[in-house]
What does this fold into?
Amino acid sequence: MHFVSLPSSLAFLSNIHTLCLHRCQLDDIAIIGDLKQLRVLSFANSYIVELPRQIEELTRLKLLDVSDCSKLKMIPASALSKLSLLEALYMSNSFDQWEADGIRNQGNASLAELEYLSHLMTLEIQILDAKILPKRLFSNGLQSYRILIGDGWDWNGNYETSRMLKLKLKTSIHSEYGLRVMEVRFCPNMEAIVVDDEDSNEEVVEFNQLRSLTLDGLPHLRSFRSKMKKAPPGIESRHKQILTADEPAFEEFVSEESSLFNRMVSFPNLEDLQLVSVTCEKIWHDQLSATYSNLKSLTVMRCDNLKYLFTTSIVKSLLQLKTLHIEDCSSLEEIILTEEIIEEEDERVNKIIFPKLDVLWLWGLPNLIRFCSGYQIEFQSLRDLYIVGCGALMCLVPSVPHTDMMAKQVYTETNHNTEIQSLFNEMVAFSNLENLNLREMNDMKSVWHSQFAADSFCKLKSLKISYCSKLMTVFPSNVLERFQRLEELNVRYCNSLQEIYQLEGFNVIEAFELRKLSIDSLPSLKHVWRKDPQGVFTFQNLKSVEVANCDVLKNLFPASVAEGLLQLEKLSIIECGVEEIVAKPEDVEPAPYYCFKTEEFLPRDTDF
It folds into this structure.
């Protein structure tokens, strides 16, 4: 049906809520501006070149459908932004002449207008040029969408998913307005992000402007970029498509890749990478290096097929890395895989340096047996280290080099039976570490080796140890001097722990800066200080001491330590076997007098 103009009598339908003009040829439809009660307006499959300015008067409109209006070339600027109650906008195979600039009063509509549609839940749209995408394009409430970015797309076909985003790229993206943030989440059937035709060239796809990439909830993802094996019947092959939705036919024709990121994709300016619930067997191709040289933050969570995170060649290029968070990766055995024979006489070859890494989280990694082996690791800037739920980890960096995973496992099992390994040794350096948290380290028997790299742990301020069932001593006497700056010590639920400070064989007077001591649920603890340091070690800054559930602890302070506790403000002793708070000094008569300026004193029945 052809309307040169809509009949004027239409204006009398002032209370009409729904108007559908399908498969019509429409010229002048300005009169619809009088239908201010409209909730639904559809021109689907109609021949229409321009929407009238009067459409902005329909402020109660909730659904606008101009799908399959292939001749629609003009929507007045700022008109869409006035439809503030709009919940559904259908523009498939329709208008795609979006302006690049923000909202104006002249020309065509811009994508920025959609930011004002805060109630929008359903959207079908095509955008020819990815460069004009605004930073905050869609409302957070968007629930159903079909969005095509790039030219040459075909809207025909049956789509079984209600959420589809397709982006067609050129080989490289050089524009300063290029894609900066990419998030792909909860697409259970997706196997690849970038898909090439079987006979396409193998040029590197460069995401030059991408700064942040998140891949989350993609249980079948094998590779970021892969080739099609074949095109399903009736579907035209497409070149370099980015598919961020779950299409059931997709997994039948995408080839498998051994690494998530291969040599055919590049992120030269990527700063933040988050991988969550991605089941690839390895993240990077073994020879990748410079394409990730700007990476600052890496988070890997619930990636249960990973056995290692980096190879040595990859990790040596991550000089800008500041945060590394690895959590709940059940198969991870080591962080850095040694991939080549180490030339021990060349110190530059067998050292890996993290110059800017500030925070390291190793959390819930039950099969982790080492960070690396054979290489010296230097954390020049690390301030916060958390190792939690790594029950098999006994030595962070073993000193013996190995070249394959099987040999490493044999080495570890052998050394379990021949010597007590320490978590930290001379192979790893922490010159600026301030906070250390060790929790649920079931096989760890010793924290500190007798030999350290120079300056390691000298700046440590806070140490928290809990649920380490085989640990027997916190500070052996041969390492104690390194921890003078420690301000807070918290030790809990370590069933085998017998002593905190082992004091033996010192002649030089050392002052410790410890201010808060908290120990709880240590059923085997016999000594906080094993022997009276006789003034060689002093703890004059100690302000708070909390002790609870230490059944075999008979006394708390050696006499010389108690004499120096002039700053003590809080002393709490609960459910302990303590018989005397200050141990009686040997060969001293009469017993000395102690003065504590405590503001809070909570002992059970004990004697001084």
